Amino acid sequence: MAAILETQGLSRSFSGFHAVSNVNLSVQEGSIHALIGPNGAGKTTCFNLLTRFIDATAGRISFQGQDITRTPADAVARLGVGRSFQISAVFGQLSVFESVRLALQRRRGYSMDWWRSDRALSAFDERSMELLAEAGLSDWADHLAGELPYGRKRALELATTLALEPRVLLLDEPMAGMGAEDIAHAAAMIRQAARGRTVLMVEHNLSVVADLCDRITVLARGEVLAEGDYAAVSGDARVVEAYLGHGHAGQRKHHDHTAAAATGEPHHG
User: Can you list the domains of the chain with their CATH numbers?
Assistant: First the structure.
């Protein structure tokens, strides 16, 4: 498979602190790729660089072979790079259905005109309901988005991101704060969303990473520590040490369970 999103020597410093340093990342088209690492590893900073929310200090970012290193964030989004965030954010006074329809309205080139007639907006109704069904939100369509349980809000965010029809979907800790039932549902939705597109996700739940992801890049202190499939990175002594600290590198046979427990709580990276 060809790479759809790549970085070469990507770096970002803040007043002398190297948050991301010389990161070479290659995300293959059609894959689910995880970016993992301990707290403070630079994962979210990487996402902010890839989506152009912040500028790189050095290095290059390319999407579908096009250099987007200095492309504005809104233009990157229009090219087909969609993103969710760590912190849940919905339009609380819109219904779940209206939220998805609004995202579709924007994608199809309409301005966000609140006064547009119901007849004009009805063109988006069928696709809105399809996206809600994919998100498991059909029964919640008429509820206010602000009244949804936390896990359902995260599902709505994913549905509205998918409404923008991204080629690459960047998910920043999509399982953060979810219970076991919501995690299982979100994982199924991500697997569904990955059909026909590429997913790059930051995730601390390593059992989810093991189940979903084709390839994993491990960051530590802003640098790439290891890369490969789950078997390769989970058996890497450097990865074990980065997560658990010095003295645990020899405990590889316990790594899957211990590292999952050690990183099961939401973190920021």
Answer: 3-86+170-178+198-262 (3.40.50.300)
